[in-house]
């Protein structure tokens, strides 16, 4: 049996049943009717013949074997670590965790929210600051976010100082992002103090890229005296031994948690972090998990202060972060839980001991060190760097050569005494010497950390195994039920493609390893980029952006730099339809483009008359337009070519948001029907799992004229004075290939489906969506349809008239679906009072019919209110969802029966999911913001008050 037959939910007989229901005799006829003929691809994408699952893994094995797995002592922000097997197998490789969606429906996300709250508590404790977010994308872009945060918080001045002791990739990404928003950047060695005025803040390395440790207290005091802010970039492993930056006045602390059990992954995905002072909490980018309570008063978790987030603030957004690194933050969280404060300190001390032994050895042999104070990185100077590096590489070790005469050796968790001896031998030294700690005495850690019970009670494998299972059981993920989220494509993540990501020959490769040791990785990436170019019709694709939001930003920066390079410096306006994804406007703002909104017509398409007016008004200043295709309203707009032509005629570029490629792949190519640039969501169409809110990968594809402006190498020599009009791209993430570690998933998916399979998957998505729309339109009107009344791969159900008649809201329906065992559809986007549904091609007819049954049953519950049989306030739908605890309590406080609440359809009797909490009080959590682990007694105090 081919893989595509396993990927597609409905089999041939089921597809025939569904086609009959929607009125077509073939999938080809259905897609041809839905898809405008004028955008059909000129030819099919040229992908290799489809492989079986076994063949795909064999080919991946071949790529893996072409990589040389060296022992990594390179450092520069990426360290050797050991992922505990119980966490690797029970979390990273467990579908209950990696197929979960972003926890916007908190009642069915309590497990992953608790894990993320553990992560926040870990960061708050180690940094000494009161508020931490639930992860950012990577260290370099996190520092860029900190620069933006400082520039917003300090109103006077537009200059930021970057410590030259930061890692090169951090400097390059942060500097270019700052320049994009017209923040002046100065790069200087902050050991020599501050120079100049009008500073909004400084970013301080703690420790430096060559290992030295700067005492930042005087520097931070001077910044504060000037009214500026201080950002400290710190390795959280070092903070187990070094004083917390919050203790000496840091306003923002950021960095990477990669070495907390997350593999090197050839550069990512890795969870960055950010912690801030109390006064900055409402301006901090990224998601924030907070503690609140459900309607019975039981402590619960939710995403807090959501009004800060980009999808709500749009062009007023201060960040475009959409996908974070939730899955990897959870790995780091569990690594801390598993080891606890004592175990973590032991790991840090062992790392430091290996470094000091090596330092004493080379110094004792007469070699010179850059610094005598360090945590894990020892830099030797005055040597033939190339020769030492080559000798050690031959022996199986990867170290960092800095210039011609420096070699940096950075120690990780697995470093042994034998490794110290082998590394010393690379410098021609035979005897290893003992050494004392090399930390500055006045910077040694004194403050406690990880005192909460969760970090001090779960250290055996049995305990961890059960804790992971307990948390995943509290969630609804794709391994349990359909997640019918419009615009988010929660489809099958093929296990055969998932397995290889943790193979050591992929997972254990440092992102800055020499090219001769990474041939397999680079061949895989080059092939994947070519396949994506074939599918999209673009000249070239870069997979560097590590989220859809970063792909958007990279594409818009390419457009902006293209115009400036051509002398069109005044083109700084981007047209964005009012129905567009919230990230579009946010990304445009970060690219320093001014947003002008284009109206949406009554049928959901772009209002062409308003577009003409906006082009007439802004044509000479128009950089381009951002459109989503098919539209966010779930239809194929027939005028898309006309829109592209109008914008091109006025000198603008066309950005086509590729979030909905699940409805185009194999049938139409954005690069052919008018696009100049698109980003793709590999975590949507191309099966990288969402992981509870990340990882994501957002490759950007461009037409030939924009190829020079694709993202550049973050390690390349860059000059902050390089003019914006230079014909070169700028890096958006820490590594050249972004989150390479998860690329084997999309490679495997495409390798196993081939050209025909790509088209079949798209057709399947369109068939499933139209089947739901056809069978539910009498219960819930479909808001927008296209040709012959068809939708694309998703549809919007309009509840507004029902809400007016009954009081039942779209949110009520979302919560009630939990009792039927379903994750909610997308709520009130892009139209308030609606539900947007996308079943994907992976759901079989039985699951689709189960969803239809649930929605019809809910519609009947609404009708009882409309008919006056039940009052809205006391209805089964308004009080949903229902926990096992309340259903089995001695007292039942409702007029409807327990059976109506918990078992509204017969199929639930043998397959029932109970949410761990009832409906959550969203407002309470924002009014009483708590973003760290609550004490156990907070739960114990409420156990007697959970029955209503």
From TrEMBL:
Residue numbers of N6-(pyridoxal phosphate)lysine PTMs: 684
Catalytic activity: N(6)-[(R)-lipoyl]-L-lysyl-[glycine-cleavage complex H protein] + glycine + H(+) = N(6)-[(R)-S(8)-aminomethyldihydrolipoyl]-L-lysyl-[glycine-cleavage complex H protein] + CO2
Family assignment from sequence similarity: Belongs to the GcvP family.
Function statement: The glycine cleavage system catalyzes the degradation of glycine. The P protein binds the alpha-amino group of glycine through its pyridoxal phosphate cofactor; CO(2) is released and the remaining methylamine moiety is then transferred to the lipoamide cofactor of the H protein.
The protein's assembly and partners: The glycine cleavage system is composed of four proteins: P, T, L and H.
Glycine dehydrogenase C-terminal domain span: 761-882
The protein's name in its UniProt record: glycine dehydrogenase (aminomethyl-transferring)
Molecular function terms, GO-annotated: glycine binding; glycine dehydrogenase (decarboxylating) activity; pyridoxal phosphate binding
InterPro entries linked to this entry: GcvP, GDC-P_C, GDC-P_N, GDC_P, PyrdxlP-dep_Trfase, PyrdxlP-dep_Trfase_major, PyrdxlP-dep_Trfase_small
EC assignment: 1.4.4.2
Cofactor: pyridoxal 5'-phosphate
NCBIfam families according to UniProt: gcvP, PRK04366.1
Alphabetical UniProt keywords: Oxidoreductase, Pyridoxal phosphate
UniProt GO BP: glycine decarboxylation via glycine cleavage system
Cellular component aspect of the GO annotation: cytosol; glycine cleavage complex
Domain Glycine cleavage system P-protein N-terminal: residue ranges: 6-424, 436-712
């Amino acid at each position: 049996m081919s893989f595509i037959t396993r990927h597609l939910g409905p089999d041939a007989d089921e597809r025939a049943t569904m086609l009959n229901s929607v009125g077509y005799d073939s999938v080809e006829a259905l897609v041809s009717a839905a898809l405008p003929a004028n955008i059909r691809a000129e030819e099919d994408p040229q992908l290799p013949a489809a492989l079986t699952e076994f063949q795909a893994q064999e080919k991946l094995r071949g790529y893996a074997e072409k990589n040389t797995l060296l022992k990594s002592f390179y450092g520069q922000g990426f360290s050797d670590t050991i992922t505990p097997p119980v966490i690797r197998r029970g979390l990273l490789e467990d579908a209950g965790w990696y197929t979960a969606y972003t926890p916007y429906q908190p009642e069915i996300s309590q497990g992953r929210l608790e894990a993320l709250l553990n992560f926040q508590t870990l960061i708050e404790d180690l940094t000494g600051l009161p508020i931490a977010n639930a992860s950012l994308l990577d260290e370099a872009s996190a520092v860029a976010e900190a620069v933006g945060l400082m520039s917003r918080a300090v109103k006077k001045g537009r200059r930021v100082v970057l410590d030259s002791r930061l890692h090169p990739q951090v400097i390059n990404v942060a500097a270019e992002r700052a320049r994009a928003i017209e923040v002046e950047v100065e790069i200087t060695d902050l050991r020599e103090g501050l120079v100049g005025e009008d500073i909004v803040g400084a970013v301080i390395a703690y420790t430096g890229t060559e290992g030295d440790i700067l005492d930042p207290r005087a520097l931070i005091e001077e910044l504060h005296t000037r009214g500026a802010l201080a950002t400290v970039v710190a390795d959280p492993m070092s903070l187990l031994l070094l004083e917390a930056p919050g203790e000496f006045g840091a306003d923002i602390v950021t960095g990477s948690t990669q070495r907390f059990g997350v593999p090197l992954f050839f550069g990512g995905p890795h969870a960055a972090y950010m912690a801030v002072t109390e006064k900055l909490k409402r301006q901090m980018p990224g998601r924030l998990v907070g503690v609140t309570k459900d309607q019975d008063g039981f402590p619960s978790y939710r995403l807090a202060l959501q009004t800060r987030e980009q999808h709500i603030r749009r062009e007023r957004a201060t960040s475009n972060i959409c996908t974070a690194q939730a899955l990897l933050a959870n790995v780091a969280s569990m690594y801390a839980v598993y080891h606890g404060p004592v175990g973590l300190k032991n790991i840090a001390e062992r790392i430091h001991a290996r470094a000091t032994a090596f330092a004493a050895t080379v110094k004792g042999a007469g070699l010179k060190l850059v610094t005598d104070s360090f945590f894990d990185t020892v830099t030797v100077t005055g040597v033939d760097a190339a020769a030492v590096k080559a000798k050690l590489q031959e022996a199986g070790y990867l170290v960092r050569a800095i210039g011609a005469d420096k070699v940096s050796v950075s120690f990780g968790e697995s470093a042994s005494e034998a490794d110290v001896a082998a590394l010393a031998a690379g410098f021609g030294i035979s005897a290893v010497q003992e050494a004392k700690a090399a930390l500055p005495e006045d910077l040694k850690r004194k403050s406690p950390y990880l005192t909460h019970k969760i970090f001090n009670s779960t250290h055996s494998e049995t305990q961890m195994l059960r804790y992971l299972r307990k948390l995943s059981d509290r969630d609804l993920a794709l391994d349990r039920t359909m997640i019918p989220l419009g615009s988010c494509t929660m489809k099958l993540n093929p296990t055969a493609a998932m397995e290889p990501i943790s193979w050591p020959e992929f997972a254990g490769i440092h992102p800055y390893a020499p090219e001769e040791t990474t041939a397999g990785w680079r061949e895989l990436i080059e092939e994947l980029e070519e396949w994506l170019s074939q599918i999209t019709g673009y000249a070239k694709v870069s997979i560097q952006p590590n989220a859809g939001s970063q792909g958007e930003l990279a594409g818009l920066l390419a457009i902006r730099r293209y115009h400036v390079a051509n002398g069109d410096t005044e083109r700084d306006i981007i047209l964005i339809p009012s129905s567009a994804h919230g990230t579009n406007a946010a990304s445009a703002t970060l690219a320093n483009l001014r947003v002008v909104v284009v109206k949406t017509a009554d049928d959901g398409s772009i209002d062409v008359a308003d577009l003409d007016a906006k082009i007439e008004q802004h044509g000479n200043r128009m950089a381009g337009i951002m459109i989503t295709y098919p539209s966010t309203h779930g239809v194929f707009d027939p005028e898309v070519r006309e829109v592209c032509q109008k914008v091109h005629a006025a000198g603008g570029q066309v950005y086509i948001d590729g979030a909905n490629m699940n409805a185009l792949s194999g049938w139409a190519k954005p690069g052919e029907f008018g696009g100049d640039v698109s980003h793709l969501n590999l975590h949507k169409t191309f099966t990288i799992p969402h992981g509870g809110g990340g990882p994501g990968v957002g490759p950007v594809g461009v037409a030939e004229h924009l190829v020079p402006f694709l993202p550049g190498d973050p390690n390349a020599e860059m000059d902050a004075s390089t003019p914006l009009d230079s014909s070169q791209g700028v890096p958006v993430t820490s590594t050249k290939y972004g989150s390479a570690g998860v690329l084997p998933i999309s490679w495997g998916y495409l390798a196993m489906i081939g050209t025909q399979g790509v088209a079949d998957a798209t057709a399947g998505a369109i068939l499933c969506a139209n089947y739901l729309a056809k069978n539910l339109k009498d219960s819930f009107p479909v808001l927008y349809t296209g040709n012959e009344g068809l939708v694309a791969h998703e549809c919007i159900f309009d509840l507004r008239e029902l809400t007016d008649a009954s009081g039942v809201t779209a949110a009520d329906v979302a919560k009630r679906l939990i009792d039927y065992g379903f994750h909610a559809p997308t709520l009130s986007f892009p139209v308030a009072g609606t539900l947007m549904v996308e079943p994907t091609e992976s759901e079989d007819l039985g699951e689709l019919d189960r969803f239809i049954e649930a929605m019809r049953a809910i519609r009947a519950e609404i009708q009882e209110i409309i008919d006056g049989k039940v009052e809205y306030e006391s209805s089964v739908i308004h009080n949903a969802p229902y926990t096992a605890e309340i259903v089995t309590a001695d007292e039942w406080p409702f007029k409807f029966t327990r059976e109506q609440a918990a078992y509204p359809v017969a199929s639930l009797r043998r397959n029932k999911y109970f949410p761990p909490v009832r409906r959550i009080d969203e407002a309470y959590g924002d009014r009483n913001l708590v973003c760290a682990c609550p004490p156990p007694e907070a739960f114990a105090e409420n156990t007697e008050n959970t029955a209503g």
